[in-house]
Amino acid sequence: MSQASEARPPFPPFTRESAIQKVRMAEDGWNSRDPQRVSLAYTVDTIWRNRSEFPEGREQIVQFLTRKWERELDYRLIKELWAFDGNRIAVRFAYECHDAAGNWFRSYGNENWEFDEHGLMHRRYASINDLPIRESERKYHWPLGPRPDDHPGLSELGL
Fold it and tell me: What SUPFAM superfamilies does this protein map onto (predicted)?
């Protein structure tokens, strides 16, 4: 699966604090919108389910994320810990983006993650629903990149 030189702390088994840290690291990575950077958090043979796509391995993850962020413009994401046990973490998330025509969306979902002993994600199962929103309904207004520490999370935003 992975090599120790690719280790990504924190490592399982997760505590509440280390699971929260892992979730925030994933959120920050995805908010970079850098497919290559994001792919390094996953094992080389990672297995995903994302809507109707089933990418496997880092190369397919990079291709998937490249396509995603070419069509999901001004993407901003918030993730929140839902549950954890051993080497597994469950999160809920919401992100906002718009398409090339300027139509805004908020996408809500849940992810189940399973990590190897080196802290790399081996399995990622995502269930996602999209909601068209007006630009005036947006809740994420920070500059592109990581969410500022003082920006409210999902629960504080009522999401």
Answer: NTF2-like
Token pair for residue 101?
């025509």
Phi then psi for 78, rounded to 5 degrees?
-125, 130
Beta carbons within 8 Å of 98's beta carbon, 6+ residues apart: 72, 73, 74, 104, 105, 135
**Sheet-wide strand order for 73-85:** 42-50, 121-133, 104-115, 88-98, 73-85
Considering the entire predicted model, what is its pTM? 0.95
N- to C-terminal Cα separation, the chain? 35
Residues 22-61 have pLDDT tens digits of 999 999 999 999 999 999 999 999 999 999 999 999 999 9
Q: Are 96 and 140 spatial neighbours (Cβ–Cβ below 8 Å)?
A: yes
